[in-house]
Each structure stands twice: as C-alpha cells, then as structure tokens.
UniProtKB/TrEMBL annotation:
Domain Tr-type G intervals: 4-184
Entry binding sites for GTP: 16-21, 132-135
PROSITE patterns: G_TR_2
HAMAP family to which the protein is assigned, alphabetical: LepA
SMART domains: EFG_C
UniProt protein name: Elongation factor 4
The entry's keywords: Cell membrane, Elongation factor, GTP-binding, Hydrolase, Membrane, Nucleotide-binding, Protein biosynthesis
Subcellular location: Cell membrane
GO biological process assignments: positive regulation of translation
Length: 596
C-alpha cells in the first residue's frame, strides 16, 4: 500500500470515557471482524484488565477502509491506560501521527484526559477531539467542548459521537483519514524500528510490537537490539486484523508484530530500537530509558507452605512484565516472602490480584514504601525501600525522597477540601486554573510516599467521587525523615516500622498503637506497646492481661455447639501470627498492616 494511504493513530481517554467501545466500533465498521467474531472489547485481552476496564499491554490492530475511491491502511495502536505506565503510553504515542482524544460528555475533562493530552502534545501529534456518550440525557456537549477548548485545543472540528449506539463513528474514520498525516519516513535508510511493546506468549515466546521508522524489515532478516547489541533471526512477522495474519515485510511507516528466538523479555524493552545486524543504524531512535519501580512492598503467602508457589507466580508474571521486580525477604511476623518493586499503586494492585486469581494464592501485602536515597556520613549513597535497612541516625547525613507532580481535576465547590488534603500530604501548590466555571485543574508537588497511602480514597471521599488525579515523577528532594520503630513487649516488630516525616511521627505512632490495642487480643500476660524514634519513646499503650475461656459461656448441655467452638478456635490458631511473644489472627494482622 502507498505510504500516503497509511494512518497510525491511538485513542486516548480518561478511564471509562469509552475508548474500548469506540475501538470496537471502528473494528466493526472497517469489517475487520464479522459479527460472530466481534466479542465485546476485543482489545482488552487479560481477564484482570477486562474487569478493571484498563488495558495494560498495548496492542495494535490493522484495519482497511475505502474512502473517496482509495483504500487506506489504518493502524490503531492501543495505549496502556494509567499513570503508572505513562512512559509506555508515551512510547505507544510516539509510534503514531495522531490521536483521537475521547471525552465523556457526561463527565467532561478528567485528570487522565489532561495527562494523555500532554503526552500527545509532547509527541507533536495531530489531535482530534471526540465527545462521546451524547446519547445520555446528562450529556453536556457545550460544557465539555469549552473545557476541551480551555486546554488549548481547537474545537472547530470536534466530533460528537455515541460509541455505544454507533452514532458519529463514520465521521471518526473520515476524520482520521482527513486530519491525521501519513507517516513521514525515510525508506532508504538503515532499519530503525521502535519497540512499542513486548510480552511473553506461552506458545510463541517473546513477542514484540514494533513501528518501523526507517528502512524495512523482512522475514528471516538478522536483527540487532540497539541498547544491548544482541542479535536474533526473525522467525515470523504478522499484523493483527485483529485476527493474526502473517506477512513477509514491514515498510517504513508500518506497525507490526515480530517474533524471533528471544528468550528474555528484558532484552527487548519498550522504547528500544531494532536495527539490522549486518547494516546497523548509527543512532537509536530517541528517548530509550528503562523504567524503575517507585513503590515497594513485601508480598508473603498467608500459608508459609505456599512460598514456592508464590515464587513461581512472580516468575511467570515477570515474563510479561519487565517493570516488576522482586527479591527474597524475611519478616519476623510473616516468614519468608518477597520484596517487590512496582511502578505505582495500580501496578501493585494488579499484581496482587493476578497472583490471587491466576495462581490461586492467598497473600499478604505489607504497607507500601517508596525508594529513599540516603546520603551517609562517608558520602556514599544508599538506596533503600525497607525501613529496616535504614542506617542508624549517626551514620546519616541526609535522606532524599521522591516527589511527584500531581494534576487534580475537581468541581470548584471542593477546591478548599482538595487543597487542604494536598497541604496535609506535605505538598506545595504549583498552579491552579479553571477549565470551566465549575471545574478546576490543581497542580501540586508532593512526596510520593504521601500519595501512595490513602490519598486516592480520601480524595474520592472528600469530593463525593468527582475529582480525578494523575501523577508523574518529578525528582528527589531532601526531607526531614525518621525511622519509627514499633515494639511489642520491648521487641521491635519490623513489619510495622516506618520511615516517616518528623512532624508526622507522633500522630502516626498514636494511630498504630491504637490499632494494635484494638486488634491484638488480650493475653494471659500484660502487653506493652511502644513507638520509638531516634532512641526515644514517643508513644505508648498497654493491653491488660486476661484469662479467656471460650467455653465459659456454654453451660454443659449442647455438645455440638461446644465442638464447633473448639474447632473454630483450632482454625483460628492455625492462622495465628507470632508478633514477638504475642500471637494474633491473620485477620487482625492484615488490619494492622492497612495504612493508618
Ligand atoms: P474505556 O475505559 O475508556 O475503555 O471505556 P469503555 O469503552 O470500557 O466504556 C466504559 C463504559 O461506558 C461502558 O459501560 C460502555 O458501555 C459505556 N459507554 C461507552 N460509550 C458509550 C456511549 O456512547 N454511550 C453510553 N451510554 N455508554 C457508553
Ligand atoms: Mg478500555
């Protein structure tokens, strides 16, 4: 096909604004699948993604569409759907010449609308605004239009659609052809192809989605990965229509799927460049960086026998998820498990759910922590995520913590509460602007550690669910941080120690001790609870001794009831965790680990 007739585009939207539904309509309209094959949301492949309504792995579909007597090749490249993955979103977008920016007419512009728009602008893409869900009675097209305009976009060619009811979708296809430029390419040059995505397939091994920018790539070519110089033979080239279709070559400007004898997903990371081994390009495509986890937590099997199963689960997930990191760890209360690194909270939650659902594991996730940088008195820099690795205060010169930039969209009536919350989270304001008379965009910088714990839920509850937010890593800043140690009967309990801002230590200590007091059952002996910072006790509590007899309330007679009680008690014992000399139930322990 003539390069002039190729269009590469993505659909970007805030979650639930209708990206997948519109993608389905476009696939249906271009006749890529018949009705029988058309199952809802063909692009969302994994079960977890389907339920979350988010797409983690980018995919791409090649469609054909005839317009004004010409046949066009439309490559729709799906973007991963959340802030945790903004680097991957950006790479998907850099494979495109334009985007459809979908905004729900009943919701208006939201945080991810803004974040995705910024990424599209950074990549110099043509942006076609699309207002969706106009079928709904609560749709406010004019207001939505003016919010989009206040983001600095031209709304003269905005398209009004109902993806669900197939209204306006024809116009969307025509706009893609009319407004999105065809790829500008150099097909004479040495091969340069961008790895947009890579994943592990149980049957085919490592699979790469690539966009060719220069030169061309042919079946059986010997290729080289730019960053690590590793070489492979191309065993298969294909496109999804969305049914897989084998092809012989990909020209500059095209998008397709490559399979070679690549064993390790880490060798073909998103953003790297593929070139020819015999005739390599001199320079890589711009902007390759390996993304590092920002959020860390311990994952432990609730049943210690399941350690090997957990290990196997993590190994399998890692095949498909190069940003997941883990290493063995031992905890006083939880036994053997793993310290895991995630890109963000969504990534952490998805990983947890996949371990539970795909591998049938019952797991405990400890309170997440960020990656701190510690400058020691000998001038060396230590990176730590686990409070127990923090050196003693006399060896610390300074501690640095990651800050993020937060964009928060909220109805104007909640501005006060949102600013209070951000202030409480140790943030400082960078910007505040109105997108419409009652919709406000607040930009703040704040420590990531404050955002990963309880921020999302609190924001949602103080704005009755109306605010949305998005964050991006900004840099490390020096902070007044201390280690707080929780002790039960003078024994420190690692799982509860925390690196925390000096000004917050006291309140945090009170919270944790109050929770402990509530959830640790009375024992035959008195229990002393203490919180210590830099060698000083800053808070304490005690739990009085008690003799507990489960049968005391059963007067003689009912033997089955007695047996039931005893069995229940036995069941409970199995799940008991040992905290120092104090045993508590799994449920209580989980409650204790929930962030304060
Ligand atoms: P995504 O998260 O952006 O991929 O959003 P989805 O395509 O999954 O859509 C989210 C929800 O909105 C689903 O329940 C869709 O059925 C619904 N939806 C999508 N488009 C429309 C529309 O045009 N009208 C109405 N009424 N509902 C829609
Ligand atoms: Mg979707």
């Amino acid at each position: 096909i003539n390069i002039q007739n190729i269009r590469n585009f993505s659909i970007i939207a805030h979650i639930d604004h209708g990206k997948s539904t519109l993608a389905d309509r476009l696939i249906e309209k271009t006749g890529s699948l018949d009705k029988r094959e058309m199952k809802e949301q063909v692009l969302d492949s994994l079960e977890v993604e389907r339920r979350h309504g988010i797409t983690v792995k980018a995919q791409s579909v090649r469609m054909e569409y005839a317009f004004n007597g010409c046949l066009y090749e439309l490559n729709m490249i799906d973007t991963p759907g959340h802030a945790d993955f903004s680097y991957e979103v950006s790479k998907s977008l850099s494979a495109c010449e334009g985007v459809l920016l979908v905004v729900d007419a009943t919701q208006g512009v939201e945080a991810q609308t803004v974040a995705n728009l910024y990424l599209a602008l950074e990549n110099d893409l043509e942006i076609i605004p699309v207002i969706n869900k106009i079928d709904l009675p609560t749709a406010d097209v004019e207001k939505t239009k003016s919010e989009i305009e206040n983001l600095g976009l031209d709304v003269s060619n905005v398209i009004l659609i109902s993806a669900k009811n197939d209204i306006g979708t024809q116009e969307v296809l025509e706009a893609i052809i009319k407004y999105i430029p065809s790829p500008k390419v150099n097909d004479e040059g040495n091969l340069k192809a961008l790895i947009i995505d890579s994943w592990y397939d149980n049957y085919k091994g490592v699979v790469c989605l690539i966009r060719v920018f220069e030169g061309e790539i042919n079946l059986n070519d010997r290729i080289m990965i730019f960053s690590n110089k590793k070489e492979y033979n191309i065993e298969n080239l294909s496109v999804l229509t969305p049914k897989p279709k084998d092809i012989e070559k990909l020209h500059a400007g095209e998008v397709g799927i490559l399979i070679s004898n690549i064993k390790n997903i880490e060798d073909v990371l998103v953003g790297d460049t593929v070139t020819l081994a015999d005739n390599p390009a001199k320079q890589a495509l711009k902007g390759f960086k390996k993304i590092k986890p920002f959020v860390y937590a311990g994952i432990y099997p609730t049943d210690t026998e399941k350690y090997d199963d957990l290990k196997e689960g993590l190994e399998k997930l890692k095949l498909n998820d190069s940003s997941l990191e883990y290493e063995p760890e031992k905890s006083d209360a939880l036994g053997f498990g793993f310290r895991c690194g995630f890109l963000g909270m969504l990534h952490m939650n998805i990983t947890k759910e996949r371990l539970e659902e795909e591998f049938g594991l019952d797991i405990v996730v400890t309170t997440p922590s960020v990656l701190y940088k510690v400058e020691k008195t000998d001038d060396s820099i230590l990176e730590i995520s686990n409070p127990k690795d923090l050196p003693e205060p006399q060896f610390i010169k300074a501690i640095f913590e990651p800050y993020v930039s937060i964009d928060c969209l909220t109805p104007a009536e909640y501005i006060g509460s949102v600013l209070n919350l951000l202030q409480e989270k140790r943030g400082y304001q960078k910007n505040l602007s109105y997108l419409s008379s009652n919709r406000c965009l607040i930009t703040y910088a704040a420590p990531l550690s404050e955002i990963i714990i309880n921020f999302y839920d609190t924001l949602k509850s103080i704005t009755k669910g109306y605010a949305s937010f998005n964050y991006e890593f900004e840099g490390y800043k020096k902070s007044d941080l201390v280690k707080m140690i929780i002790m039960i009967n003078n024994e420190p309990i690692d799982s509860f120690s925390q690196i925390i801002h000096k000004d917050k230590a006291y309140y945090y200590a009170r919270d944790v001790l109050a929770k402990l007091k509530e959830f640790v059952p009375r024992q035959l002996f008195e229990i002393k609870l203490q919180a210590k910072v830099s060698g000083k006790i800053i808070a304490k509590e005690e739990i009085k001794a008690l003799r507990k007899d489960v049968l005391a309330k059963c007067y003689g007679g009912d033997i089955t009831r007695k047996r039931k009680l005893l069995e229940k008690q036995k069941e409970g014992k199995k799940k008991l965790k040992q905290l120092g000399k104090v045993a508590i139930s799994k449920e209580a322990f989980m409650k204790l680990l929930e962030p304060a």
